[in-house]
Amino acid sequence: MKKIKKKEVVLLAGGVGGAKLAEGLLKIENINLSVICNIGDDDDFHGLHVSPDVDTMIYTLSGLVNKKQGWGVKSDKYKALDVLKKLGQETWMLLGDSDFGLHIYRSKRLNLGHKLSDITHDIAKAFNLKCNIILPTNAKIPTQIRIENKWISFQEYFVKRQCKPKVQKIKYKGISNVEANSEAIKAISDADLIILAPSNPLLSLLPIINIPQIKYSLIRNKKIPKIAVSPLISGKAIKGPANKIMEEMKLSVHPKGISDFYKEFIDILIIDNEDMKACYNSNNGNIKFIPTQTLMKTKKDKINLARFIIDQAKIFMSN
């Protein structure tokens, strides 16, 4: 029997939506999945390097995630945080005891001079992940938010201030000068399909895409389908502040506004059925809007969306 060659699928992702879609893709037969994770929200807490989006992906795909929150470790305790609070430390970044263990390991190896990408690879292996977790760069590209005429860190905006301040601008510090990881470039170049998860474009995907070498690779690889999934349904985000920030920055919360973030290279934007009327017979240049159910409440929903994307890629390639 002839062995079927597996398709190389690359998912660009950050946050809960990205992790959910990755879960679904791992249930599809005959694909090798590589996930390029956002590190723009990485930060240091209590002397430790924390990678929230990477860790959410790892915890989710290993079955250890706190499903109610969508992040963190299930049944985690917060005794270490209680001690830090007693010692007068700021504890608004909610890190559980198991979570601390991961951050201690990562930080110890960084202090030894190891690359963050190598450390992440070893963590994913230890957690028995069935896909490649790839970092876009080993450099720091912290996402910064301008509010009230001053710049603050992403985590201060997102966690400490709970996304309440009005956002004036967003930047990814130093991104135009960073070097992309060779593994990320190779994954994009060798891919049979590239998917952009239903993650917040401004906070989770642009910190990946705006790395010059990565954007160039996405634009250059014209032979394969590149499909994005809108994180909005009827102008609202399922989770997180995507529509709030877009409105505050005077960006369109219509599917066309989402496609504008990726218009240099994507072929298809998957939208929810609820947005079908608003997008009837419309597109954005060469980008087609294709409706389906994008809300992922159950395991079946995740698999169905993943399968739908794979099917759309096949149709694209056959045309």
What descriptors fit this protein?
three-stranded antiparallel β-sheet; alpha/beta; 319 residues; single chain; eight-stranded mixed β-sheet; 12 helices; Rossmann fold
Q: What features would you describe in this structure?
A:
There is one protein chain. The protein is an alpha/beta fold and 319 residues long. It has a single domain (7-318), classed as Rossmann fold, CATH 3.40.50.10680. The protein is 39% helix and 19% strand. The chain has an 8-stranded mixed beta sheet, sandwiched between helices. Helix 1 packs across helix 12 (299-318).
Write the layout of secondary structure elements.
Elements: E1 7-13, H1 15-25, E2 31-37, E3 43-45, E4 48-50, H2 52-61, H3 79-86, H4 97-111, H5 116-126, E5 132-134, E6 143-147, E7 150-153, H6 154-160, E8 169-172, H7 182-190, E9 193-196, H8 201-209, H9 212-220, E10 226-229, E11 232-233, E12 236-237, H10 242-248, H11 255-261, E13 268-272, E14 283-284, E15 287-292, H12 299-318
Parallel strand pairs: 1-2, 1-9, 2-5, 9-10, 10-13, 13-15
Antiparallel strand pairs: 3-4, 6-7, 6-8, 11-12, 14-15
Helix pairs in contact: 1-2, 1-12, 4-5, 7-9
